[in-house]
Amino acid sequence: xxxxxxxxxxxxxxxxxxxxxxxxxxxxxxxxxxxxxxxxxxxxxxxxxxxxxxxxxxxxxxxxxxxxxxxxxxxxxxxxxxxxxxxxxxxxxxxxxxxxxxxxxxxxxxxxxxxxxxxxxxxxxxxxxxxxxxxxxxxxxxxxxxxxxxxxxxxxxxxxxxxxxxxxxxxxxxxxxxxxxxxxxxxxxxxxxxxxxxxxxxxxxxxxxxxxxxxxxxxxxxxxxxxxxxxxxxxxxxxxxxxxxxxxxxxxxxxxxxxxxxxxxxxxxxxxxxxxxxx
Length: 279
Known about the structure:
Elements: E1 11-14, H1 19-24, E2 27-36, E3 41-44, E4 50-57, E5 59-64, E6 67-72, E7 75-80, E8 85-89, E9 93-101, H2 105-116, E10 119-121, H3 127-140, H4 146-169, H5 172-184, H6 191-197, H7 202-213, H8 217-235, H9 240-246, H10 252-263, H11 267-278
Antiparallel strand pairs: 1-2, 2-9, 3-8, 4-7, 4-9, 5-6, 5-8, 7-10
Helix pairs in contact: 2-4, 3-4, 8-11, 9-10
Domain HTH araC/xylS-type: 175-273
Protein name: AraC family transcriptional regulator
GO molecular function: DNA-binding transcription factor activity; sequence-specific DNA binding
């Protein structure tokens, strides 16, 4: 890589969009997987594209619209690069990034920025990292299905909207419970265990948890386990049984049944589908 601060194994990919994509779709123009030192920094007055960045490891500084932010590991930032902006590594970091364009991107960015700014925690979201992998794999192999790429970009924006809505509505007590679930999803935890962490009765806790998240604590826990399982199905070589236990399911059969109920696919079929659209 020629960019200052990019380290060995960093990769950059490009895509030349079709006329149809330019007129109708969201479309990627370039992307990459960067390993960065503290010297990595990008500063622009204007660049007529939009930018997704997933911080896989390390920390990134972001200066945007007079705001100064730190994006830490498992954070995601979304920028409208038509305005002055700067981002760079605070320490050795690994980022995945995509530049894209498309009608409606400005309106979606403005909506998200008004609600939540430009930095999003995706600790509880395995969809966005998967979507980033899919679009970058297509660009790396120079096999971009522009219709699929457009859908992936829309899916990422939709996931950010869901995160934005959750962040606005969840109070500190429920956030504390969510953190407990995130740290203990692979263990045999119950409603009583979770409620005890926030000093509420199980009944009262369950009621306010659903009011604020739209899920019961059990539904939230299962969704978290399923999302983690999706990531392992895509990124690991573990067997279905190994993934089941790593995600907190007490049997492979229960995992398969629950996964199919939530996704419409068995774990094996889901894995085949994911790899099919990323080849």
